Amino acid sequence: MNDKKKVLCAMSGGVDSSVCAYLLKEMGYEVIGVTMKTWARDTSKAERSCCGIDDIDDARRVAAQLDIPYIALDMEQVFKETIIEDFQSEYLKGRTPNPCIRCNYKLKFGYLMDKANELGAHYVATGHYARIVEVDGRKAIQMGDDKAKDQSYVLYNLTQEQLNRTLFPLADFEKDKIREIAMEQGFKRVANKPDSQEICFVPDDYRDYLKKSIGSDIKKGTFVDHNGKNLGEHEGVPFYTIGQRKGLGISFPEKTYVTSIDSETNEVRLGSRDQLACTAMKVNGFNWVAYAPRDSSFFAKVQIRYNQQPVDCTVFPSNQNELTIKFMEPQNAVAPGQSAVLFDNDLVIGGGLILERL
After folding, report:
1. Per the domain annotation, does 331 fall within a domain?
2. Residue 98 in domain
3. What's the helix, strand, coil split of the chain in %, to 5?
4. Residues with active-site annotation
């Protein structure tokens, strides 16, 4: 049986996860620090990403200061098969993936939960800014106190079983306070580390990464307008995303945007801002969090990009896993492959992947 006082704490070598481990120990938990070594062998992006060799050293150093056991897991092959190959495949299909969200639920709350079982730990803890609450007998995700750092959007895939065994110790804190605690505890190397905001395995521009990694699979195609007229040649569908205006390689007298991508015909459709606007979308793979699955329509707010404000919508479930979302006002940033997360005030109703614009 898993020990309810034992917790596996994901440590990325950053300030949030370091303070997370400290707070757990202060709360009386038996803490085991763990870092997933994913891809990084060089340190060229150590200041901007996570899980590089320097980050592992920083995590190990903090664990030693806290006098807790520490493990570095070699996840390179699993990460490649689960995250990187999906990232490449999605772009080849003309979709816009979010590998960090996929990493969250496939590895941080999937693989690590299995590791916790192996080590006899009941809980997995991370430094996410979010809160777990109970609503009508179900576990739910609620926005954290620091709304500027809130990460509830990226956590919508957690199951009820995972939520029952997950701890988010940073929910009651703002980022400045976390840095202050890190300094007080002598975590000097991590206290002022900048937040990781990049895709960890992409050195700079994702287009350059795709050219180097799957360039032979990328074929040039045709730009077309909304009447099907040929507007010129494009470099390959993976290099474009819905709403893109710059970097098209051709110029127009008025502002022109990517409005749709068809990987089967290898066509990228361009249009005006009005033609970019979308009134509804289909979402699949939906995971219900705060509420049990519903079969009738309801009002909610939906967020379709990280750091974007949720907007009003009406939700029409087709079945437990698929639904149609109609916006109260047309939206421009609706990109298949991105996550759509529904909110009831500050509670995550659930979320899934955008399948298509309607």
Report:
1. yes
2. yes
3. 30, 30, 40
4. 103, 200
